[in-house]
Amino acid sequence: DSGVTQTPKHLITATGQRVTLRCSPRSGDLSVYWYQQSLDQGLQFLIQYYNGEERAKGNILERFSAQQFPDLHSELNLSSLELGDSALYFCASTPSWGSSYNEQFFGPGTRLTVL
Amino acid sequence: KNEVEQSPQNLTAQEGEFITINCSYSVGISALHWLQQHPGGGIVSLFMLSSGKKKHGRLIATINIQEKHSSLHITASHPRDSAVYICAVRGGGADGLTFGKGTHLIIQP
């Protein structure tokens, strides 16, 4: 158990809908990363937050957004869902940011299915 | 943008064999991660390296910064080692990881 929690585990929804995925980092970790794993693209970095502020953006679509709250949990919002958004979404946490020595601890993932 | 290549893509071996998985990347990095993903989907961090070699149990990871290459070795392989092994690299600063496509390892009893 990495100490990172994600809810829900599974989510099934329809095209055009909006969903919110939740991540709670390890106790004491200030930085949260979101990743998407799809069959065709593999694992991709989406976005990073540190202590409530956005730090880095990867291949995140404009239909997707995220935020990190004062209690350090993070939410990834996916809107106008398309079939191609079906994927495993992982979050990971680290104690800080910008350090080469931060190991990333991954949550169990949320499996999103868009029908 | 860093390109991360792993080889082989698929590997089937017999229990007890010595396993090597390779990873190469195109641009200088600050750290390289080896991750393990089991069929259930969860990702476990095995190693984080910025230089040299690390060992944990039957797993050994090495990195050659000059050659932009890393290897993951498994000694005395066991069926429970069957999983996808993913190499990921991190540049400096706050960027997230860039991942290889993974190596699907099957160890047969």
Short description:
Chain A is mainly β and 115 residues long. Helix content of chain A is 0%, strand content 52%. The mean pLDDT of chain A is 93.
Overview of the structural elements:
- The complex is a heterodimer of chains A (115) and B (109).
- Chain A is mostly beta strands and 115 residues long.
- Helices cover 0% and strands 52% of the residues of chain A.
- Chain A is built from no helices and 11 strands.
- Chain A has strands spanning 5-7, 10-13, 19-24, 31-38, 42-50, 53-57, 64-68, 74-78, 87-94, 105-106, 110-114.
- In chain A, strands 2, 4, 5, 6, 9, 10 and 11 form a 7-stranded mixed sheet that branches. Chain A has a 4-stranded antiparallel sheet with strand order 1-3-8-7, with no helix packed on it.
- In chain A, a hairpin with a 3-residue loop joins strand 4 (31-38) and strand 5 (42-50).
- With 109 residues, chain B is mostly beta strands.
- Chain B contains no helices and 11 strands.
- Chain B has strands at 4-7, 10-14, 19-25, 31-37, 43-49, 52-56, 59-64, 69-74, 83-90, 98-99, 103-108.
- In chain B, the strands form 2 sheets. In chain B, strands 2, 4, 5, 9, 10 and 11 form a 6-stranded mixed sheet that branches. A 5-stranded antiparallel sheet of chain B has the order 1-3-8-7-6, with no helix packed on it.
- In chain B, a hairpin with a 5-residue loop joins strand 4 (31-37) and strand 5 (43-49).
- Chain B is globular and about 45 Å long.
- Classes of the chains: A mainly beta (115), B mainly beta (109).
- The A-B interface holds A 2, 31, 33, 35, 42-48, 50, 55-56, 58, 88, 90, 97-98, 100-101, 103-106, 108-109, 111 and B 30-31, 33, 35, 41-45, 48, 50, 86, 88, 90, 92-99, 101-102.
